[in-house]
Amino acid sequence: MYHSLIQKIQSRISHWASKNLSYAGRVQLLNSAIFGLESFWCSCLFLPATVIGHIERLCRQFIWGYSQGTRKLIFFSWEKVCRSSRAGGFDIREILSWNKTLMMKQFWKLFCSSRTVWTNWMHAYIIKDADLWTIQPLVSSSFLWKRFLQLRDHLIHKTGMHQAQLLRATGPPRLRLRLTYQALRGAMPNLFWTKALMDPVIMPRYKVIVLLAFQNSLSTTDNLCKRGFHMVSRCILCLKAEETTSHLFFDCEYSSGVLQALFTWQGITRRPLSLKHEIRRQAQITGKNIRKKWAKCTLSAAVYNLWAERNARIFQDTCRSSSQLICVIKNVIRIRVLACMNGLTNEAVSISLAS
Question: Are 205 and 22 in contact (CB under 8 A)?
């Protein structure tokens, strides 16, 4: 019965796998195409745990770039991937909770004035004059009805929410899917440092790498050595110290010099701090003028391009000097900042011409 769903997801993923996509591009494809298909099934049926596990495995393999016969080490759990971006995740829906949320929407139709054949039959033969929030299943009740009531009890028990809290304040009775999903997922507080990544001037692919770097989830040599790999852990950029996330961003002489040059370009005289300190400083920046956007874009562009340079040296045996990399990052920042502004100002022109 569920074979067609898995087959459709598998065929789409196998087609996309041949494309050269960033992590952010893969996440966007999953959210737009795969989860649209999956939502139809989730709104009609309680998906078995084995089917949910299979779908999540396919999605996980697609995001991290698995290929046939190979296995990759991942340092970012699927539970974190399914968190909201403000909680340090990728904004991907957790399938089990989403399935329960959409099925709760079907159960909610019994409260509404919607008179479909199913709701009429349920009220006439099953519910009758009982209260939907207290009715209990009979031994002879169907499997689907028992699952509905279990879901109702689970939602109330887990959240302690009264039914009125699930209704909209105005208009006809309607289940709030977002609140129901958040209630089933559990409380996930927003993290202050993620404010630094919320500005649209930061490109999605940059945002993902910064997010992984901040949470020490990149495949640095020290992380690989902790998993049992025997390899030289020296930093490929400066060749002077062990490669760790904190060293790459920005204790390394090479990366620190790159960021220092970008700071000088912006008129900032202080020395670069560690990545976590820099992101927390950026999270405190408010305002939407071009100078603020310029500052927000600089750090993410530096982190992404330094990581790309590190990978190019290891896997492609290519090498760029710090001055070459600085020129690349400056060009990216100019184009991105100007593209995000509504019209060019004198200040924008001066930035675009800055060297």
Answer: yes
